[in-house]
């Protein structure tokens, strides 16, 4: 291949990095802004959950359909459409003046991200082969991963100097650069053999997951047995079951359910989904504790999240060596037990707890997440034959994102329920009391406005009680998954001979 053509391919790969970096940033950059949003937009805990989950629900439900759409219609044009949607959503979020508009913008961001993530990876085989393909996929994955530690720091710095809309505005220059670079550099590619998009099944998946999350988020407000909660939960589950049945009966399904017959894929997916659930629930609660209860600045909160992000990276990198020496099963079980230990340590956190303890359990949690997520994901991909690697990896990403959405919904609602039940306010005006019951940020604002340190202390105690209950549930879940899924997880990934000859498929 000519040198100019080779250079063009690598420049095209660089253009893909801009879109994936934006998606990676968006996973963590918003968490440090949640306390600010709670005050500036008067958002309740349930509304904060929706601001986070609107993005994840859309991303999880549309990952597979968006990838298929790119295969059928042309990956370049679909990728450009995805970036345009993401950019428009960021602009809308920047100008949002109400919680409803921001939630809608976040959902639209999820639609754009659902296109950018799978299609960016899918174009690589059309430009690279052999060892170059493996290297290209690794670079794209690293580009997205960089956003994880960068998000809290960048978000905190922006909130220190600008208004909360800046955490969305910062995406626009990267999106514009990526859009025009892709338009000029990326070749068009298609895969006409890919399964057709199924609109009814896609609609059932999106609506089902959204309804389920709605029921879980609104439960602390309406009651766990209220009609709205039950209709949302049961209706959502029914639609998800309908989606699964439609795929099982389809001659050319979007989701290959036969993958779950493989032990590594089944239990690896269970472990990765559970780890994602715990991680996203933690990232939802901890910034509120650090910023509202402990009074740290947004940038200080971003800095204090680094032990968790650092632990995640160290655990993920170290997991490869541990798995090679002790086996994947032992590494995954150790990671889950380590996560449980971190969760148990977190239950001892109260208002005024020094950061020494908090930083310790954040680091332990991150290491545990990394040690369980990475080997589980690697073993799943190693077990997939080359012709099913793309759909298998996309399905696992969908399950992980679904776990994250459920984690924010369930764990956030547990925290909210305990907070409401433990909150013991001094006599306050009815409107002020209602604001204090909605969220700990509302309680802090009310206490400051009325000069009531007793109200603030009561709210802080109630919030840490709720956070402690969440981490106790997380510890139990991690132990249950460790002993239920761990022993069934293969000691070593069992790649077929065909697969061993197609390592790029495994990397993808």
Tell me briefly what this model is:
This protein has 508 residues and is an all-alpha fold. 81% of the residues lie in helices and 0% in strands.
**Multimeric status of the protein:** single chain
Q: Which CATH C-level class of the largest domain is it?
A: Mainly Alpha
CATH-assigned homologous superfamily of the largest domain: MFS general substrate transporter like domains
Looking at CATH, which topology of the largest domain would you report? Growth Hormone, Chain: A
Count of discrete alpha- or pi-helical segments spanning 4 or more residues: 22
Strand content: under 5%
Biggest sheet overview: none
Secondary-structure element order, N to C: HHHHHHHHHHHHHHHHHHHHHH
Rg, Å, rounded: 22 Å
Structural class, please?
Answer: mainly alpha
Structural shape: globular
Mean pLDDT: 86
CATH architecture designation of the largest domain: Up-down Bundle
Helix residue percentage: over 70%
Gap from first CA to last CA:
23 Å
Main location: membrane
Subcellular location: Cell membrane
GO molecular function: transmembrane transporter activity
Keywords: Cell membrane, Membrane, Transmembrane, Transmembrane helix, Transport
Write the layout of secondary structure elements.
Layout: H1 3-28, H2 34-40, H3 45-73, H4 75-94, H5 99-122, H6 124-127, H7 130-161, H8 166-169, H9 171-185, H10 199-222, H11 227-249, H12 263-293, H13 298-304, H14 306-326, H15 328-346, H16 355-383, H17 389-422, H18 430-438, H19 440-450, H20 453-484, H21 497-500, H22 503-507
